[in-house]
Amino acid sequence: MSELESSLGTAEYDKERVDDQMIPADNVHDKNSITFQQKNEEISRNQLDSMFTPILEFSQVFGNFELQAQEKLADKVLRLEEMKHQLDLLVELLVSSIQTRELLYKTAFIRRSKNLQKAETKVDLLGDQVDALIGLLEKIYTTLHQRSPVLQQHFESKNLAPEYEAATTELKGKAVLAKVNAINEIELAKRWGIQGYTTIYFFVNGVHMDTYYHNRKKDDIVNYIKTKMAGDLYTVMTTENAEHLLTAQSTIGLGFLNSLKGLKGEALAAASKLHPDVLFFQTTRVDVANMFLIDPEIKCPALVLLEKESKQLSHFVIDDFISLNKIPPMITYSRETTPLILNSPLKLLWLFAAVHDSEAKSIFQETARAFKGKVIAVASIRKRKKYVLNGELTLSNVKSFALDFLGDKLRNQK
């Protein structure tokens, strides 16, 4: 039974299976139709998805681009607005500057126009008052002339011409006076440093020695030039001036000293006073001394004489020269002058005369000048030989006596 039930159960199960397998044809057809439709829909959906995906991606990219473009455009617009604002300010400044300059030009033009009108008005007024103005200027010039040294010099320069011509006439043959118009000869005036009028420059053989600014009358000029020509000691410190001296037409004496100050210079100056016919100069420059053939190694001071005629240079030890010339041709014997007389290497010529015998002194002095540098007195002491003039005391007798004395032709008087 159990086996039968088992068999029946199995058969029943198989039957259900058969029933299940035996599906109606319509149902199968419907199921297939639905499945196909679903597949078609799925395929269509997949196709649509594959078509719309790029479109969606492009739309998203385009949206991002549009957003970035809007942001950059907004930034550019902001910068443009800022630049426009700055440009507007600059334009305002330029316009303001141009307007200010225009106003200045306009103001200056108006002011100059007014000044021109005033000047024209003044010119019109002055045209009617020329004579009155000339008179006023003359009064002003006269007033200033009394107070201004410069105007006085200019005025006196005009008045100097006749004084200068008179001085030239009086000094003819003794000195040459030249006149230079410093207003026309500007370069020459600058070269010599002319600062005032009238100025007189004193030259000795082309060498500038002194300048005169004082009184401008004829007598003052003549006295000044005669004083400078009477004998003086000048200083030469440049080779240029020394060249002028070497070509001079006068007898030149040049002293080479260690210093321009001191006893040697004073002694040379004193000697120059005794020889007005010789122009004496002094220098401390070795290059100047060399031009006169003075050896700088020799004992200083030294003296050189350049003779006018022969142009021969004669050298002396200045001490010897001065010792021969420091005593005047005629000297009064006294206790103070005894050392000068007895220490002189010259022969002595004595005159014994009364104190008030002016005629004898005059004759003796003229004789002494004729033998200057050779004789001082006729007799000496200290057991020296003595000679006496026998005869009348006249100029010719004294000169003959002196010549005989120099020639050792006199007999000793014991």
TrEMBL record:
CDD domains: PDI_a_family (cd02961). It comes from Citrus unshiu. It comes from the Eukaryota. Residues 1-20 are annotated as: Disordered. SUPFAM superfamilies: Thioredoxin-like. Pfam families: Thioredoxin, Thioredoxin_6. Residues 158-226 form the Thioredoxin domain. This is Thioredoxin domain-containing protein.
